[in-house]
């Protein structure tokens, strides 16, 4: 009997290849053309995208990327995902399990990594999007790319797709421990604000569970930390366009809190496995300015789990419980 050869693919969103306008434009064109991301009639959206978005937004986005870009390593999302993947791979290598990473947009591309697994004789494929909460705009987009590539193969591998891990106990504990560690380093602020990436509100009505999963994660985390309702808030960030998105909006809450007597906040983004433009620039920098301008006097961003040992353990636990067979588990 031939032994199984397992390949694990960790997938994240992606980043521009370089901090330049052309690279950012290519990335945004790829990202925003995905029907899962913007679900408008293609002819209409093509006109909007090419007439009103791509001529202007890349330059603005570039200025944000420059603030967080590492001159040696590049985009934080890219190198942190790679470093996390390498550490998970090191843990699983003794069992002969191969681990690699890919991006939904940009490089390394999902089809490229799947073909590499195929060439290496992988018989069983486990795909884990690095999004703790499932969304049709992120996790489902990974699934689309997976199926699109596999539909061209004559010999399909066995595969498992792990759609989310928003209630995973080790994930919740790791987040709580990181927050408690931050409170040990500096005084705890008045309120803990949990900020998740926003989505159009209409997606929830269509059956997307993201909104509910974010709230489940928030409740579990607050319970783990022993927080009272008055000691934490859950918000949604990164609104794009004029349509109604998931509420409450992060910026609105940060503007309102000082008026309610909240002078300091700790910010965390539980929906991001690793830090990226949204967390390091929008939350840690831009929204800090908004809160202080509104009257706050203390603002601290608690970084994502990134490539920490705790996050490696989270990924291994998710893979063990959702991806591997009982006879070949991660240890």
Any overview of this molecule?
The chain is an alpha/beta fold. Strands 2-1-3-4 form a four-stranded parallel sheet, with helices on both faces. A four-stranded parallel sheet has the order 6-5-7-8, with helices on both faces. The chain has helices at about 20-30, 40-55, 55-70, 75-90, 110-120, 140-150, 170-185, 200-205, 210-225, 250-255, 275-295, 310-320, and strands at about 5-10, 100-105, 125-130, 160, 190-195, 230-235, 265-270, 300. Helix content is about 45%, strand content about 15%. The chain has two domains: about 5-165 and about 310-320, Rossmann fold, CATH 3.40.50.1400; about 170-300, Rossmann fold (3-Layer(aba) Sandwich). Helix 1 (about 20-30) crosses helix 3, helix 7 crosses helix 9 and helix 10 (about 250-255) packs parallel to helix 11. It has twelve helices and eight strands. Residues about 325-330 have low confidence and may be disordered. Strand 3, helix 6 (about 140-150) and strand 4 form a beta-alpha-beta unit. It is globular and about 65 Å long.
